[in-house]
Design goal:
Radius of gyration: 24 Å
Number of helices: 15
Structural class: alpha+beta
Mean pLDDT: 90
Distance between the termini: 23 Å
Helix content: 25-40%
Number of strands: 24
Low-confidence stretches: 1-32
Strand content: 15-25%
């Protein structure tokens, strides 16, 4: 882990990303007389000195169901690291090391069999759920079935390659994954059979949608009732209008510091209901130790001067974008969608987010540095590799050609300072190019599910996407693939409803090619990125950097490239 230096409001900010990456505890507690390595000794000393206390976190609101097989938000995925486990997981480490897949409930990452279509997972023994029950192979099989029974948002994209998934997608309630996920109780193994090799299979098993829950967990959305997990912490209480309380899992015994390390705080309180401004003030005054929401722009200068040692800035593989519903007017017309992409002043949006130190304009789906990314910007004054300026004349001409001028358009945004400012800008821009535009702000607790459901007839919205794992498909296939579009569902992450059969076939070709030729697959993803960008089912806005603002009593801040701040690996004094 390296030290980072960035700027905030034009002022230098030292990002002291302290991490104990590479200082991992032993997989098992040392037996009496065991000689510890220097690293293990260091971790033991840190635990002895800093373990305990109550950590207080704040957010504007909760974000939807607490069900880990359904929720698809950074806010909860960040917490699920310490609450739940899958067969494998992403390493709880700092920086890009957080993209590494490590064994979790499985003893090892199994070697492929049957030409890459079969994997046999040996389950660790002695791991218990929060309620004291042992984790068994039956729980694993039932959890995979549950992914389909609750219509997890990624059931049709991440897990549709499992044998029997086609029947489960067609009839979720009766899902058995017959022949796809097979338990051997005597051997303590679970065999997963795929219809074809999948180079991203372990990534998909590492995200929260594949965590293992007790076999008797209800096969409907749990809503505000926490699912029982296996992590170092458990949810003691949850009220989406007030607070989530996490405490230590009394049955937890560390089996892998890489997969599920013990944590420092005894209690983590997560309070909901503060405004962005109030969150900043609470952290400044030591009434809270961290805020989830990004600080309002007007507080950045103050944070960058008075509190610069408590601000951490990290570049993200993510984007802010404006999905446009391709199935209802006016954006069922491609020229209307392209007009919006031409008209957007991305520099203005970057400034609304906090300036060039905190964001960069983009025109395409794949973020810089991601597999398959090649700079591409057709929607700018001077089309080419990079965005230069908006082209309002071109945009107005396209609106006129589309025959959609004068139509009503409502932009749905989150009720946060930054999202509302972006929504206000988009409303003004839409009026400038010929639409009768308005903006509506919804609580972050419901906005993401609301804009996904076709029953709400959302024409345009503002959303954000942060990688599930480092692969081009996770942006293009998930956000714009036909299998991600589920009409009438709150879990239809293809918000634009975009489904181009030819492009979809090319996505499947790229996924298959990656098994033997990753470089060739990345070239295909580059072509797909350009094709989707040209069709403009969403207007790309900017790629963000992430700001973490912490209290002066919080130490050992570790930023993980996969899930961001590793919450329970920090301590409070």
């Amino acid at each position: 882990m390296s030290w980072r230096k960035s700027t905030l409001g034009g002022l230098a900010v030292a990002g002291a990303l302290l991490s104990w990456n590479g200082v991992a505890a032993a997989d098992e507690p040392a037996a009496p007389g065991t000689i510890l390595t220097p690293q293990q000794t260091q971790v033991a000393a840190l635990m002895a000195e800093h373990k305990g206390g109550t950590m207080r976190l704040v957010a504007r609101s909760a974000q939807g169901t607490i069900d880990p097989h359904i929720n698809y938000t950074l806010q909860y995925w960040q917490f699920y690291q310490s609450l739940y486990d899958g067969l494998v997981t992403f390493k709880h480490a700092g920086g890009a090391d957080g993209f590494t897949v490590v064994p979790d409930l499985a003893e090892t990452i199994p070697a492929p069999q049957n030409d890459g279509k079969t994997y046999v997972f040996k389950l660790r023994q002695g791991i218990k759920f929060w309620d004291g029950r042992d984790v068994t192979v039956k729980d694993v099989v039932a959890s995979f079935q549950r992914i389909f029974k609750v219509s997890s948002p990624t059931s049709g994209t991440f897990y549709n390659g499992i044998v029997g998934a086609d029947k489960c997608l067609a009839e979720p309630a009766t899902c058995t994954l017959d022949g796809g996920v097979v338990a051997d109780e005597a051997a303590g193994t679970v065999t997963v059979n795929l219809i074809a090799p999948d180079p991203e299979f372990f990534y998909k098993l590492s995200v929260p949608h594949a965590v293992i829950l007790p076999a008797d967990t209800a096969t409907s959305d749990l809503g505000t009732v926490p699912a029982v997990g296996t992590g170092a912490y458990m949810i003691e209480s949850f009220d989406p209008n007030k607070q989530m309380k996490m405490v230590r899992n009394p049955y937890f015994k560390e089996w892998s510091a890489d997969a599920q390390p013990d944590g420092y705080p005894d209690v983590v309180l997560y309070d909901f209901g503060l405004t962005d401004e109030a969150e900043v003030t609470a952290v400044q005054n030591g009434e809270a130790d961290w805020m989830f929401d990004q600080p309002p722009t007007d507080r950045l200068g103050e944070m960058g001067t008075k509190y610069k040692d408590r601000v951490f800035i990290n570049t993200l593989t993510a984007w802010w974008y404006a999905p446009m519903n391709v199935n209802i007017p006016p954006f069922n017309n491609e020229k209307a969608r392209q007009a919006v992409s031409y008209a957007i002043d991305r520099k203005a949006l970057v400034n609304l987010f906090g300036g060039p130190a905190l964001a960069a304009p983009v025109c395409q789906v794949l973020p810089p540095g991601f597999p398959g990314h090649v700079d591409y910007c057709p929607f700018t004054k001077n089309p080419g590799a990079k965005w230069s300026a908006p082209d309002l004349e071109k945009a107005k001409a396209l609106v006129k050609e589309s025959g959609t001028a004068g139509q009503k358009v409502t932009v749905i945004v989150e009720d946060t300072a930054i999202s509302k400012s972006i929504g206000t800008y988009l409303q003004s821009m839409l009026k400038d190019i010929g639409y009768d535009a308005s903006m509506k702000a919804l609580s972050p607790n419901i906005q993401f599910t609301y804009i996904q459901n076709t029953n709400n007839n959302v024409q345009m919205s503002v959303s954000q996407w942060y990688q599930d794992y480092p692969a081009a498909s996770d942006f293009l296939n998930i956000l714009f693939g036909c299998d991600s579009f589920h009409p009438g569902s709150d879990s239809s992450v293809n918000i634009a409803g975009y489904c181009d059969k030819a492009i979809d076939a090319k996505m499947k070709q790229a996924l298959a090619l990656a098994v033997t030729d990753q470089a060739g697959a990345d070239k295909l993803w580059t072509e797909i990125d350009k094709a989707v960008t040209d069709a403009a089912p969403a207007a790309a806005l900017f790629t963000p950097k992430h700001i973490d603002f912490v209290s002066k009593r919080l130490g050992n801040f570790t930023f993980n490239a996969q899930y961001y701040w590793v919450i329970t690996q920090s301590w409070v004094k």
